[in-house]
Amino acid sequence: MKTLRNILPILFLVLTVSTSEAQKNKIYSAETNMKAYLQSKNPDDLLQAKQIIDEVVKHEKTIGFWKAWYNYGKVYQLLGSDSITKGADPSYLLTSLDAYQKSFDLADGRIDMYTKDDIIMYLKSLSVAFYNDGVDLYSAKDYSTAAEYFIGVINTDELLVKESGEGMPFVENSSSMAVLCYRLMADQARSAGDLDAYMGKIRDAQHFFPDNTDLMTDEINYYLMSDRLQEGMSIVRNAIAVQTEALSADPENKAIAQQLSMLYVVEGEACFRNDSLNKAYESFETAITYNPNNHTAQFNCGVILVEQFNIEGKSLNDMTDLD
Length: 323
What we know:
Structural class: mainly alpha
Strand content: under 5%
Number of helices: 13
Radius of gyration: 28 Å
Shape: elongated
Distance between the termini: 124 Å
Largest sheet: none
Number of domains: 3
CATH topology of the largest domain: Serine Threonine Protein Phosphatase 5, Tetratricopeptide repeat
Number of strands: 0
CATH architecture of the largest domain: Alpha Horseshoe
């Protein structure tokens, strides 16, 4: 009996190690299928890799193994890029990005240089796939998925910068496209008469782009349409106060000055829509002081001057008619 007690823990250890090694061997099997796919472009090889790696990342012995999640990310990236398999699930690329993020967190800096080069190559390819598919989805007016893909570019870029110190050149345009997609979805809701859904889309976008002045303008429009102008104006003025304080602490910061300039444009446009022409003009003038190249503010000043000239001209005509 004593001998049996001694043997049982050893057997348990052997079984545990064997199970763990078996799961790790499956990772190599998935890699083999991926390599076969890259040579043959036969989606069956890729689907076989998916079947294997799906099991690996769910198993208790490998669920916390960074290399399992890294290969999971690679398999799903290839699934989302293959012309045949990508149509089965639009979330393949997004799943891939999530897997890479999990993999890097688990690795905690323990990635060898060879693998890191492989990572950088795949991340760059993922960024390009997100962007190109995002443009296609935008053209097809699938604004919701397009926005997810453009944000995918941004999140992939963060990983790239972290791993290589250098991002992709189209990340800024991806931000603009993501904002545009959300604004178009909001506009669709407004056209349908659903102001709550309109504001919901603006809020969704602001979660990712909290300082975007176009979204702030849309938010002001919501309050205008809801006859709650003062609530909207208070948001803008609070933002102006925050940025003014930030600029006081860093007077040479051009980015803050430009942000302030755009905030005053938002304030001016709200005043203009509320028929407060003089206040609107003051806001646009202030915008120009912070950024002399703010063409929107310059144009709006011109519009107001023409509007005021027309009003004064009409008043003179009315007086002449009375005579």
